[in-house]
Every structure is written in structure tokens, then in C-alpha cells.
Task: structure prediction
Amino acid sequence: MEDFINNFAEQIDETERNEFSKDTKFKDLDEWDSMIALSIIAMMDEEYEITINGDDIKNANTIEDLYKLVNA
Amino acid sequence: MDKNTFSLDGKTILVTGASSGIGKSIAIACSNFGAIVLLLGRNINRLEQSMSLLNGKGHSYYSIDLNKSEDVLNLCNDLPKIDGVVHSAGIVESQLFSFLKEDSLRTILDTNLIAPVMLSKHLIKKKKINKESSIVFISSISGPAITYIGNSSYAASKSAICGIAKTMALELAPKKIRVNTILPAMIETELIDSIDSSSEDIELDKKNYPLGGYGSPEDVASTVIFLLSPASKWMTGTDIKLDGGLTLR
Result:
């Protein structure tokens, strides 16, 4: 989980790593936009070989929700 | 606005193809405007020679073949953080389209397109490029604007660079990293010798330029300085034509 949060935080420049937790509602972040969503999709493919799409992002609220997709 | 608007003071600038021609002039100009310059090239002796022409301290050079992806990755790990990248490395090979060889097409695309693009990608991914940096690709008038007989592979590589540069500009804008290209027409460098034209043909060709003759490497370097400096901080995704008026006719 920590590793996943690290990889997630890596995609978002302006927010410090220590502000992220499994309960972070990532879509509420100031920087959240469609390009960061694409970065997350690409990161999950590259790091975890998991293919997710925009709907998966839409249906997820917290970082943990996304993490569950990795282990689904 | 004062003259600092055009200064590169305190900036670290990476220049590829810095061992000769346009890249060498760019490296020298960057040092004259206050930058610490990281020179990339293949030939160590010529890199050392370029280094000896730089102003100021703190410059360094790296001998590397940018087509070797593992070497590029290692280099990216070793590099300090940078504020600007100038992709000046490139090759020309003249081949009539009906004689086009797949190998030579791939060789040109590897060096002129894949290598600079992947170097940029690794630098971004490894967070070596600071916010508000500037990335400059030396494209060409040949491809994006006009072309020459026998120049299909080269023109393809240079047009492709412009397409990628615009996409990079859009995606990197949130980090205030700017990406622009320069489209020079003929510049007097040793590359001209690799074009299959007689010296009479070249003298005749120079008459096509309303501003009189070919450009100099310094003409390209001064446009690069503008693109690296805060003077162009609102410019991104732009192709700057630099052609002595050639395409006006």
C-alpha cells in the first residue's frame, strides 16, 4: 500500500508526499485534472501491469479504492 | 524589463551535438549569457575543444551515443537538475525517394527523432528538468515548411519533431516547462559537405535567400538564447522559422 501511495504521489507534483494517505480523496486535490488521471492510468500499467480506464477512476474516490484494483 | 530578461545566469543548460557545428555555437552562446553548460557529443576530443571555448566555470561534457538507450538512462541518472535542453544533434543523408533504403530511413529517424525524444522523456520522468525550464529542438525548414530533392528521411524526422514538440508543450505546461522548435534553413556548417551538391550549386542556391546567403551557427544560437531565457516565458509549442527569407518567395 505504501509503495502504491508513493507511486500515486509521484504523479502529482505540487502536493507533498506526507499529505497522501490511503484515505485521500484524490479528485478533491487542487491539481487533479484529466492529464493526471491519464498519468495514474499509465502508472498502474507501468508499475503493476494493470489496465484500468476512465470509468475505474470515476468510480474510485480514495487512493485505497484504486489500490484495490491492483489486487483485484 | 531589463537585460536580465535575456540572461541565462544561474541556469544549467544541456546541449546535444555540442562537439561541432550549430550545437557548439549554442554551447558557447549559452556560456556567454551566464549558463552552466553540459555538453553532449560523441567525440571526446572535439567535446574538449568545444569546452575550451566556453566562458565561465562549472561546465562539463559527457561523451555518449544517444542512440544507445541504456547509456542514455545511465547518463540521465548522473546528470544534475537542469533548466534547459537544446537538442542539436542530428544527421543528414541525401537519398532520392525512389532509391530510399529502409536502413537509412531508420538510421535518420533514430538519430534525429527517437534519440532526442527519448532523452527528453527520461529527463522528465527522472525529474531532472526543473519547473519553468525550456526545451528547444533544432528542427528544420525542410519538412515542416519546404523540402529539398533527396531529403525525404531528414524531412520526415524534422516534421515529426515538430509534432511531438507541440504535444510535449501541452502536457508539460502545468509544470511551466516550455517546448519550442527552431526551423533553420541552410546553415554554414560541416554538415553541408555531406550534401551531394557541387560548390557551384551551393553558390547558386545562396542567391535564393532574400537576406543574402546561408545562416551562421550564431544566428541559430541567438534564437536559442531567446527561447531558453525568461524573455520567451509565454511562448510554447511554437515553431520559429529562421530562414533568411527563403520561404517568402
Summary: The longest strand of chain B covers residues 129-138. Chain B has seven helices and seven strands. The radius of gyration of chain B is 17 Å. Chain B has one domain: 3-240.
